[in-house]
Structure formats: structure tokens, C-alpha cells
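task queued by scheduler; priority normal; single chain, no ligands, no partner chains; default sampling; output format set to C-alpha cells
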Amino acid sequence: MFGSTTAYSSFSVDDLDAARRFYGETLGLQAEARGEGDMRMLFLTLSGGARVFVYPKGDQHSPASFTILNFEVEDIEAAVDALSAKGVEFQRYPGFEFDAKGICRDTRGGPAIAWLTDPAKNVIAVMQT
């Protein structure tokens, strides 16, 4: 039924301008603001052309309790270093071991991964391919 229709994921933020700066400038994604007033929104374009819809919820925003975006990188060390140089801080979660840079290297066979949050505290992952 929907196999040939356009679809995209979405998530909320508390400050659309901060989200546009973070996703556009810090992460380097195409971040296109649309609309005016209460109807402002943001579209992120990911590699390959997939889009993500970001909408403001102001004081009613609650950060997602799960990872909203996963970015695959060939060199996680370089990605973490580049983001750290832009002021990004990496999250450390209980039950995982992290190196000094905030990279978790799962000894059970999972990919190397580092978690960060956007200005609205939504969780993003950077994973080694």
C-alpha cells in the first residue's frame, strides 16, 4: 500500500533555531527551515536523499528516550575528534565501557559507537561501519 509513497521520520525539539544551527552547522546536514510563526518546521536531508522532519514543541518537548538518528562512519575516531572540536560532548551510559573520547567498543561484537545529544537532548549515535 505505501511501498511507493514518500515517507520520512520526525522528532520534536524545544528550539527550532538551535536545532537548525546544530544539524546544519555542527553536523553538516542540509537543514532547510520552512513556514512562519507557529507553523515553522525544519527538514533535514541525509546522505542518499532521505529526509527527516523536525518540529518545535517549545515547553512541551520531551527528549526522545531512544536514539533518533544513527550516523555510520568509516572512522569513528576521526568523527568523534571532529565533533569534539566543535564543542560536542559525548554521553556515557551505565552498563557500557567507554574510552577517554567517549567511544564504546563492545567486546561482544557490536560496532564501536559514541552517543551525543542535540540541543533538545534527543540522542544521536555515531557508529563505526
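post-processing summary
- The first strand starts at residue 9 and ends at 13.
- The CA atoms of residues 97 and 104 lie 6 Å apart.
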